[in-house]
Design a protein that fits this description.
This protein is of the alpha+beta class. The protein has six helices and four strands; from the N terminus they run H-H-E-H-H-E-H-E-H-E. The chain has a domain of 119 residues: NADH Oxidase, CATH 3.40.109.10. Helix 2 packs across helix 5 and helix 3 runs antiparallel to helix 4.
Length: 197
């Protein structure tokens, strides 16, 4: 099967970067059908014993994203001491979901039988997110995986079922012109040891 040339795949993979909501064109919506396509790609992640532990809660419309922003901002207000509180950070937290075309809450469903270690379930979820991120990159969409301090309380607000926990928020949006950053990676040779014999 050669319908995905290796060179094209490598270009997409090496182009993937964290692109933040402040860099998005907030007036350009993301069609629901496109979000579904990204989630279909996420669903193809590797999974030990076929537990498929990834779960997503989609905040697509403006009203849902506004509710998410309000909850995140209020959590920040109520969990920050008066001397550490920043009105600027509060406003940024409030606006971040609205600057995005879509926000996904990322959750992990623990295998009820605990057939695999929890770290393998988390690794599978991370693989699903990477699939989604690469798919978004291929379509020109920017993405950003955030793990806010409110993450543990977020699960309760989302009313996640028993056995699920929230592991982050994924922001999606169309980057404005010139907002796609260059990659910064140290040479792979510094991270690899070879044994030939």
């Amino acid at each position: 099967m050669h319908d995905c040339p290796a060179e094209a795949f490598s270009r997409i993979l090496r182009r993937r970067r964290a692109i933040y909501p402040a860099q998005y064109d907030s007036d350009r919506p993301i069609p629901a059908e496109l979000v579904t396509e990204l989630l279909e790609d996420a669903n193809q992640a590797p999974t030990h014993r076929h537990t498929e532990p990834w779960r997503f809660v989609v905040f697509h419309g403006p009203a849902s994203r506004r509710r998410l922003g309000e909850w995140l901002a209020e959590w920040y207000r109520t969990h920050t001491s008066a001397d550490a509180f920043s009105e600027k950070k509060y406003e940024k937290t409030l606006r971040k979901p609205l600057l995005s075309g879509c926000v996904l809450a990322i959750a992990m469903q623990r295998d009820p039988q605990a057939r695999v270690p929890e770290w393998e379930e988390l690794a599978a979820v991370a693989c699903a997110v990477e699939n989604l991120w690469l798919s978004a990159t291929a379509r020109g969409l920017g993405g950003y995986w955030s793990t806010p301090p409110s993450i543990h309380d977020l699960a309760a607000w989302l009313q996640l079922p028993e056995g699920q926990r929230c592991v982050g928020l994924f922001y999606l949006g169309w980057p404005r012109e010139g907002m796609w950053p260059e990659g910064k990676r140290s040479p792979v040779e510094e991270k690899v040891t070879w044994f030939e014999e």
